[in-house]
Amino acid sequence: MKLAAAQDMRTIDALAVRDHGLTVAQLMEAAGMAVVKAIGESWLDLPEKTIGVLCGKGNNGGDGLVVARLLKQKKASVVVILTGEEEDLSPEAKAQYQKAKTAKVPIIPLLDSEGMKTVRAALEECDLLVDALFGTGLSRPTEGVSRELIQAAKNLGKPVVAVDIPSGLSADSGFPLGEALPAQLTVSFGLAKAGFYTPIGSGFTGRVVVDDIGFPPPLLNAPSLKLEVTEREMVQKALPKYDENTHKGTRGRLVVVAGATGLTGAAALSAYGAQRIGAGLVTVACPESLIPILGAKLTEPMTAPVPEVEGGFLSLKAAGRILHLTTNVNAVVIGPGIGRHRETGQLLREILTKLTMPMVVDADALYLLGGQMDIFKALRAPAVLTPHPGEAAWLLKTSINEVEQNRVKVAKQIAEGYNVTAVLKGRFTVVASPDGRVRINPTGSRALATGGTGDVLSGIIGGLLAQRMTPFEAATAGVYLHGLAGERAGRKLGPDGALAGDLLPLLPRLLRQIKENNPEPLWPSHPNSKTSGKPFSSSSKSGSHGSTNTSKPRGSRK
Description:
This protein has 558 residues and is α/β, with parallel strands linked by helices. The protein is 38% helix and 15% strand. The strands form four sheets. Strands 10-21-20-19-18-17-16-11-12-13 form a ten-stranded mixed beta sheet, with helices on both faces. The chain has an eight-stranded parallel beta sheet with strand order 4-3-2-5-6-7-9-22, sandwiched between helices. Strands 1-8 form a two-stranded parallel ribbon. Residues 530-558 have low confidence and may be disordered.
């Protein structure tokens, strides 16, 4: 499923008007119809409801005025709170204002703080609020009477339906711009917005309904839209297919360079993650003193001792041995539990540019390479980097807060800046390719919030690389399946206290279900989301689609 940034929606709006014969008025009417339809499906007794519609001065407010008029036609009691006067409105919103007045929709202008007392009294009588204050074009913190109105609406605790996007929420980052109004239902137009699929943004949207409102399919599926949500069908299509003549060699060989004193669990979890996802042969290259421990932990994966420094960390002298071990393998995982010894960092810099097979660079390896990211520009083979927000902040010399507020941007910065596939972990993990493609993962649960689950993920991705998947597809599928395993473990054992090892036996079953297209539901594209049909399309009877129109595009819908 494609996602849109704010600029994407501005482009779609403009092209719909310029090249496809649509008018802003038609799109507004369709948007209003979509919202009213969604409200009617959720609250069946509309004639018994009193609904407050909060309208701003831009085109999002124009959508709200359409909603108010259509709700009144359905016999609901409606009152509009407008943050301005008629002359303050955009031309398109002003036309909808006139239609609402003709339909005798009550409109209360909110011009200053003194008017809040009247507005609060009106809203207290409402059963439901419709939020049409700001759209995707908002780029600065909410302020003035709009901010006061948002605060008042939040304090009332009424159910809220957001028109296109919750007011005050950044369409791109999902972070609130000043005050933002949480919704129980968001009816988004054309495409869901990127900010909905972030840890913070998802808490503001409630249930998400996406309606195309008549935007032509070529605009909603344009190749320039490189941001999308990972879906089951993508993963199913990308996973390797095997017949009964398959043997361990065709399933691929993987070396996991991992482990240090006290950190052998990371090496074991990564190795088993690779085998449980289908890799044929897995070897763990670890400090020689750890062989007895890992030999006891690992039954199916093999172990290979390599030189170490005092304390049980990988030594620079291990370079030759590791390069020899990787001579005839299909992929390498580097980093789980290798510790942060200075000489281990020297080892990484020695071997990374000499490896000739796809690799996953994870965990402590990322820490050891912080500040030396240019090494990835010199690699001879593709790499997948899997930082969590703290590691991403360390790599880019920024703050965790900056990373979390710009998850897609940060993942793209790593991927495109260093020619790698970046996996920015966390809720709604972001997978970014150096060619600009980005996928946001919808699966997962808090059962994954425990030590070792990241090591399992590095093994999963490495195991898929060993099976000759491309780095972007291996990362996409690996993150998706890892998230599903977390959900299953949480449901089976409870989300608090599940262990990283609990994911491992679930992976083969999930693989089978995905590959065999088992109808058992796994997870929707967005928690509680759906895509609705078209209330308006190019085949509508309006008769105006083929006409020349000079209406200005809806632009930012602010």
